[in-house]
């Protein structure tokens, strides 16, 4: 009985191995989009044996998106206010990188483009400042990104007007938009760019202060610092956070005063 069982098993294994050999001899046709192509004398192989040990290359993983979010309040009422300096920076980046901010979603207005080999998303939340975390959560979910893929740009009263600070992590330091993001994400380890707007004369007047437009005499400095933020983001994408911090976390030097002309005898 045992001998008959082993003979049957041996016969079955032999048939399976024979079938495997025949399969190996049958080629897999090479892909050809032109089904009407005529045979040629080209010696290039047109088929690959199924058992040649050649396997399709694994899919190349796409680079993760860098999601750059400028904080602010939506609507014309808040346009140009100190609290919306993050929006000003996003607008400048969109211009610099030719990104169309045309994708209007419930939580954010955004646009996409590849910058320095990295797929970049620029976004301005459509939530109000205190609910910025909802917009950021939507963006991370949509692009399957992690908090480390973020760069948040926002106003900072503890920095003088005209200065910026890049940081890889940190707390909210009283900023309601950042507090919302940290609360929603549950982490504070994500890159940010703080843009100095200076402090009001009275600490009790900070709400009115951040919701006011920049004064006329401040606009030149504001334009310069927005340009500085754009250059810092270029550096961050191309060189990394450490190099960008070393280059831009300094107080820009003031231009030297113009020389005063000495009076002459011919002066009236």
Descriptive notes:
With 268 residues, the chain is an alpha/beta fold. The protein has a domain at 66-248: Peptidyl-tRNA hydrolase (Rossmann fold, 3-Layer(aba) Sandwich). 34% of the residues lie in helices and 17% in strands. It contains 7 helices and 9 strands; from the N terminus they run H-E-E-E-H-E-E-E-H-E-E-H-E-H-H-H. The strands form 2 sheets. The protein has a 7-stranded mixed sheet, with helices on both faces. Strands 1-2 form a two-stranded antiparallel sheet.
Quick structural summary:
This protein has seven helices and nine strands; from the N terminus they run H-E-E-E-H-E-E-E-H-E-E-H-E-H-H-H. The chain is α/β, with parallel strands linked by helices and 268 residues long.
